Amino acid sequence: MSCCVLQITGLIFGAVGMLGTLAATAMPQWRVSAHVEANLVVFESVWEGLWMDCISQLGLRLQCKLYDSVLALPPPLEALRALMCLAVLLALAAFLVAIVGVKYSQPGKEGPPRVSSFILVAGVAFLLAGSLALVPVSWTGGSVVRDFYDPAVPVPLKRELGAALYVGWASGALLLAAGAMYC
């Protein structure tokens, strides 16, 4: 019975982690403008994401602009996009395989529950998806913190950690927990 509870818990963690990774990928708040020192322009916030930049004015008006060309993006942003998209696809595949694995590892009439190979595949896929999601989020978080404390970066260009990074860290942790439960 505890095996089934662990599998269902892993499935729930995997589902929430998958949806969170998808949300973090789509959110424009990866890097948000920092209001430090004598910066008096506080009625306007700048959000930078993987797919677009947005400007929020007093929380009333939000204007977003998609990046013009994929070819004009800096290589680190292309890598972040690719890793997050790969993490989402792998998390989705792991979730679907986990559903099949839970179905085929139900207890039979003749003895204890059998663990199918789907469970192991789902666990490895969840672990890999969680790792792939944590790399771009942590990379971005590290660069934001480094630039914030760098005196060479002008104050108007300083950014803070956005909500998407926190969602990405939590989602990556849930995917890793789901993978650990299945393994």
Automatic annotation (TrEMBL):
Describe its membrane topology: Multi-pass membrane protein
What UniProt keywords are attached to this protein's entry?
Cell junction, Cell membrane, Membrane, Tight junction, Transmembrane, Transmembrane helix
Q: Which Pfam families match?
A: PMP22_Claudin
Give an example GO cellular component term for this record.
Answer: bicellular tight junction
As for subcellular location, the record says:
Cell junction, Tight junction; Cell membrane
List, in alphabetical order, the Gene Ontology terms for molecular function in this entry.
structural molecule activity
* Principal cellular location given in the protein's record: other
The residue ranges crossing the membrane are 79-105, 117-141, 161-182
Q: Which domain of life is it from?
A: Eukaryota
InterPro entries per the UniProt record, alphabetical: Claudin (IPR006187), Claudin_CS (IPR017974), PMP22/EMP/MP20/Claudin (IPR004031)
Q: Tell me, in a sentence or two, what this protein's role is.
A: Claudins function as major constituents of the tight junction complexes that regulate the permeability of epithelia.
Which family is this protein grouped under?
A: Belongs to the claudin family.
- Protein name in UniProt: Claudin
Query: From which organism does this entry originate?
Result: Spizella passerina
